[in-house]
Design brief:
Number of helices: 13
Order of helices and strands: HEHHEHEHEHEHEHEEHHHEHEEEH
Largest sheet: 7 strands, mixed
Bound molecules: pyridoxal-5'-phosphate
Radius of gyration: 21 Å
Distance between the termini: 45 Å
Number of strands: 12
Structural class: alpha/beta
Shape: globular
Helix content: 40-55%
Strand content: 5-15%
Amino acid sequence: MQGFVARKALEAISPYVAGKPIEETAREYGLDPARIVKLASNENPLGMSPKAKNAAMQALVNGTRYPDGAAQVVREAAAVFAGVSPDEVIVGNGSDEILGLIARTVLAPGDRCVYSQYSFSVYELSAQECAAQCVEVPAKDFLVDLDGLLAATDVNTRLSYITNPNNPTGLPLEPAALFNFLERVPEKCVVVLDEAYTDFMDEKLRTDSFAWVKKFPNLLVTRTFSKAYGLAGLRAGFGVANKELIEMMNRIRPPFNMNSAAQAAAVAALEDQAFLKTVVDSNTKERARLAAFFDELGLDQLPSQANFIMVRVGPKAAEINEAMLRRGVILRPLKSYGLPEYMRISVGSREENDIFMKAFREALSVK
Ligand SMILES: *Cc1c(COP(=O)(O)O)cnc(C)c1O
């Protein structure tokens, strides 16, 4: 018998499933870790800005001291970037932490939390932790159904999560449709607009979401340094919202949640927009190359605006995934999203994509 009593709400939780780590794959398949290509977690194939890396290494020298708990430099840099004031910015140990903080800020047991089918699993986890009632709204042709989300938002709904562009589909939402949604959603419901992949979108599809924060006191926009900025291992993200909401979240934010190296790297990364442009241009080009490859193979795919593509590989998805692992390529099967025939494939560097394509052709014929 266990000697503790866990909260009842935790019984429903199944833990987050991350992309298979390189070291684990190397061990299991007897491979050289240096030759493994990981296209499973939407990490940045070009790494991080050299300026960010340098800043992080400098920060290590002062690792004996606590970081600035207020992360002032990061909030200031993010505020300039977003065109808001620093008291409208909160930092997180990755944006995942902010997704959890907002849930703990607004969701009491029994309150409703609404999000779309095929959403990032952290939304459900965060709401379940608060013993909230989770409402998953069916997607329409894989697209987030904003009218459906609205219809599901009742007087007890305190939180709604929307990802743009979405993970794992890569599909974007129309800026006008999103704006219209925000105008209609009850003010008591906080809307989290998770923009983890927004940097990868075509310019004309991007929303002016930071400016929307001025108009909608119930809007929280989250950004991460893990994807386009390449700092996934350092854990850094930020959120922008009305300052009263930020202040409330700050009450429960762990005091030193963003470490010194992450703070230094985040500031340098934001300043190096030239590096970001290189990353985004490479992604756009390589994403098109992968899309053409899937077309050539006759596989269904969704038109992605992110740094990954969702592809229908068919009923043999698990076997194909296994065949890819044996060849040292880690992909993301989407069975846990209720999509057993699909995989999500991160856009790699040119060299990584070449390796992927060669292995994928083989794996499809082996099955
Ligand atoms: C990767 C990702 C994030 C960011 O996670 P971090 O905690 O910042 O690393 C947030 N939302 C979605 C949908 C993601 O895919």
